[in-house]
Amino acid sequence: MTVQASYADGHPLDNGARLVVTATGEGGRTVGPLQLDPAGEGKGFYSTGPLLTPGPWQVTVTAPKPTPATVQVVVQARAAQAAPPAPAPGAAGTPDPAGNSTTRLWWLAGAAMALAALATLGALLVRTRRRA
To answer: What CA dihedral angle connects 103, 104, 108 and 110, to 10 degrees?
Structure first.
């Protein structure tokens, strides 16, 4: 479970806050209380990892002093999705192990265009100086 926590004015909660989650599901199933840990998604994100089984849950998140708060929401938990399969080697869109990529071609094309522009500019400067 991942929670994005923010203050009433909308700015993200500092990652140093100690949030606790409890949840109640159908049939009296309960989870928690469990402490939420700061997550890698960014400032204000907290996580417990996989926690709820599929179905509706009443989730309560509480924060202690100095800014005590309690928030309750109903969530529809779903089964975790599997990661997409890895593409076959050499398939379109996969990186070439030899390091040959279209990105390198774009950089080379850009460098060639920059050199051509400098050569043209140099030729124009020489031409205008000869006239003067």
So the answer is: 20
